[in-house]
Write the structure tokens for this entry.
Amino acid sequence: MLVVLSFLLPLALWSAVSYVPWLWHPFVRVTAPGGVDYFIEGMDVPRAVFAKEKAAALQAGLVAPAGYPVNPVYLPAPHKVARAFFTAFKTPPRLPNEPWLHESLGHSIRTIFWGFVISSVFGIPLGILCGSYRFFSKLQEPFVEFFRYLPAPAFGALCVAILGIDDPPKIAIIVIGTLFQQVLVIGNTVRKVDPALIEAAQTLGARGWRLVRRVIIPATISDIYTDLRILLGWAWTYLIVAEVVGTSSGITFFINQQARYRNFDNVYAAIAMIGIIGFSTDMALAWLGQYLFPWKRRRRASALKSSVAEPSPSSAIPMSIG
Amino acid sequence: MNASSLALPDYRQQRPEVAARFQRIKERPVVLRIEDLAKHFGSGPAARTVFDGVSLDIHRREFISIIGASGCGKSTLIRIVAGLEEASAGRILLDGKPVSGPGPDRGMVFQGYTLFPWRTVKENVMFGLEMGGMDRSTADAEARQWLEMVGLGKFAESYPHELSGGMKQRVAIARALANNPRILIMDEPFGALDALTRCKMQGYLLQIWRKVDVTILFITHDLDEACFLSDRIIVMGANPGRIIEVIENPVPRPRSVEQFLTPEFLALKQRLDDIIHAPGAAEAEEKLPVVKLTEAGDEVE
């Protein structure tokens, strides 16, 4: 119920600003220029200017201009965005060599998928090593900590120089942006494993690598999974940056292109789509997690029931859209 | 308690069958020998001695309890025996051979529940067997036998979070015993359970101990528990930690709940109480700086 309300409240605010004429609406759309010689039909004029010109026209005995209050073009009304949501997929691109919206989205998802997979292939094992062994933690973490502060977009030019202008540099930027966080976050999660479980395993004869494989990894794997869900949200942020590197592509290309044509309803629709994709991916992963880690199921359910303030699993995920 | 103590027999007085039993125990081989063990934390002037000069011989299939006020180092002592901590001096001999580091020959049951949450009850019991290199199907059959023994055969496929506290500790005992340890170390294993469950668990433990060839080293701060379960009771004192007295329990076996009121039991408990709560041994109950928050005349006592 509150979940629905959490979406409805901002939507209601947006609708109010869009549909209630005396809320904000700083411009006047001219329907008839009347006696003002520089007014054109369909032109947006600031309210104060319109009022001044109207007064001037009346004083001069000319026909008063007519118009109605509007919001700036960059704030389309909800119904326009909703319409754009459906028409965007059906609208052919303006130029024959430009991609359709669904192609742009597919391209973005492919980029983020490979970026995240490559990052995880290195990040998860390194994180587990750092969390399990002091030796690896001391060996790697200071450098990783340093590298983490180097902004991934700063590597854009370098990536293009090395990897060309197509997808590889974009994937590389997502990897750079995600990998180092991943090592540290997973390392930290692994370090938080209950020491009593490790001691119990030791008194049962587990040691060395088998202790890591049979106790530390299974004890932390569900928390690592949650970490990955959070990190996937970060990867979306880097995607938007990565897509303007080299040849602009994917959803960012679509957004920039539509903004250039001043189709702001399409821009909002595309941004909302990123949100929906991110949110639904996360929901799907959360649902999948319940089946992957059955021993966690009851505990999570009871935690949700016991406290109202418990954040829903998805609200911990920083959404990358603006 | 003090008023009635005059009528109690000497706690060192043993019936002939009890004395004969202790004679037989002492003739058995020594399983665990603790030699002049000491533990210090830190170094230099800030060093703190947890305990010093602790020596003890434990014979095969003996049930030993260690009891003492908090801070006497009893937990540290058995963590060293289990290999989870290192001694500063002295050594531990298991069957005459010095040991270092944790190993499956010294099983341990902890106070907190340390079952692996991602494994079913049966898989928990199988863990040590798998670590010992046993193949899965043999380990599976073995684990089922142990679960039957602690009365939890029905719960083999359950996850630990589906069990009650007492059941979890029974699984933990089965898991430790499945490895065929020479000695089973138990660190206040029933401390987190409610009184009724604890009483039942003590009965279970005695039953298991009778059936399995295992020596038990049991830590507790519950005097009744120590009197009810053990052959010998090691009383430790604090500041610095040391063994004050080793008491041979005069209560005859087999033990039952009715014995809680026998003269031997009461005499033993009285003695333990005297040592542990001796003046100076433990701080007097502190006056808490609680401001009175009730109205005058509204007294509870």
About this structure: Confidence is low (pLDDT under 50) at residues 300-322 of chain A. DSSP finds twelve helices and three strands in chain A.
